[in-house]
Amino acid sequence: MFESGPSKATVLIADDEEMNRELLSEILTGEGYNIICAEDGERALRAFHDGSVDLALLDVMMPGKTGLAVCLEIKSKPETRLTPIVLVTGLTNTDDRIQGIMCGADDFLSKPVNKQELLARVHSLLRLKEFTDELESAETVLFSLALSIEAKDPYTEGHCERLSKYSVALAERLRLSQELQVALRRAGIVHDIGKIAVPEHILVKPGPLTKEEWVIMKQHTLVGERICSPLKSFRVVLPVIRHHHEKLDGTGYPDGIKGEQIPITARILQITDIYDALTTERPYRSALQPREALAVMRAEAERGWWDASLLGEFEAMVLGCTPLQPARSGR
Fold this sequence. Notes:
Elements: E1 10-14, H1 18-29, E2 34-38, H2 41-50, E3 55-59, H3 67-75, E4 85-89, H4 94-102, E5 107-110, H5 115-150, H6 159-173, H7 178-190, H8 200-203, H9 211-217, H10 220-228, H11 238-243, H12 264-278, H13 290-302, H14 308-319
Parallel strand pairs: 1-2, 1-3, 3-4, 4-5
Helix pairs in contact: 2-3, 6-7, 6-12, 12-13, 13-14
């Protein structure tokens, strides 16, 4: 919860009418909020770039950049899109409000502003922002943990970020939903987070693992799923974490599922994971060139390990050519 005093939330008030700015500022200052005022849309955007704004009250009819334009720009940027925006307007036309919703506005206030309504809406939206901030903090902790595991092995530096990039690019090529693209972006970073439970001498062992060591290593998919399961925002990520070591012929782990029983997101991550491993220097072999790596992967796909249609799309993406075969359905 945002507390009163110095740590109280910061509210941006953008209105070209000084009297309106003073009125809103007086009401919110009286409740302990920190206030930033802007006389127009350009100054409002600069305030977002210059400091931490927890909520914005934007007058719709400002000269230059309108409140709608400012709202649209704020909501289009990843770093500010979750900041609550309230459009303050004297407009009552339904079409105007629909336009505000299309720009990403979280709420509306009608002029003249009612004090109690203003305070209730500000308080409610800031409570929601607090929960969102906590969620983002939890995700940040998971990402940091995943990257710290990656850092234990100098040969895997940058592996997670490359997987995230490759996987999202392939998902975009396949026209998968935005939800699945976000899941793959996250999964690329956290897919191996369960390796925190794997002893370091196994994790960085330069030679083949023993049978007993493989039993331990294979648990990392299940451990990773358990670590990430409390976050509801990761519900689409969990199947990727659990199943990215399955094989189409059922010889993978942990569940030995086959074919399209393996989620398409997990099949995508498999392909990008293997490609990155083959094209990265390892203590036991040199990095392969892209065409060499893809040739190895095609041979493995013929053995029934990987999704040949997805591999064809990935190869086309990497080499910039026409895919070898159409992507499989079931997306």
